[in-house]
Amino acid sequence: MLFKGDIKDIMTGYRAFSYEFVKTFPVLSKGFEIETEMSIHAIDKNMSIENLIIEYRDRPEGSESKLDTYSDGMKVLKTIGRLFRNYKPLSFFGIIALVLGSISLGFFIPVLVDYLRTGLVPKFPTLMSCGFLMVAAIQAFFVGLTLQTMVQKNRQDFEFRLNEAARIKRQEINNQR
User: Fold this and answer.
1) DSSP codes joined into one string, 94-151
2) How confident is the model at residue 108 (pLDDT cuts 50, 70, 90)?
3) Count of beta carbons in the 10 Å neighbourhood of residue 30
4) Alpha carbon distance, N-terminus to C-terminus of the chain
5) Where are the domains of the chain?
6) How far is CA 104 from the centre of its chain?
7) Which of 37, 44, 45, 88 is 20 to 30 A from 132, alpha carbon to alpha carbon?
8) Is the pTM of this model over 0.70?
9) Nearest to 96 by CA among 146, 148, 129, 134
């Protein structure tokens, strides 16, 4: 949902890859979370994805799974979080900015009400904390905005590399003829 993809099961192990995917996929993960990374890379790069429904059979009697539900699940969730930060930085840092800004405003409003009522600021440390939280929220927002610009530039560079990989593939096919 975070990446607006239509993959039904990212944990399925059988996959077929196009030449372009193989030549542009940066393998950064190892182990179980690589399936998540491949899926998100394909979604982000608007590559063709097909879901084929298969039937599962029960595991043969006496065999054991190598998977650990909790530790492997945590690895996948951490990978999704890391990739969300890397592929959609404005959304990631925007959420952080929204939380920090909301907390800041939530604590600031009672201080403001006291000030408007009495003309005094009895909770000066709270006022200072609210200011620092709001500065952190603004910084988080602008970090996300800056990184989003960099992601956009990387997408443009990716399109160039994809076209270059397609050109090399055509050249290799022509040389084989």
Assistant:
1) HHHHHHHHHHHHHHHHHHHHHHHHHS--S-HHHHHHHHHHHHHHHHHHHHHHHHHHHH
2) very high
3) 9
4) 44
5) 1-52+64-72, 88-177
6) 26
7) 88
8) yes
9) 134
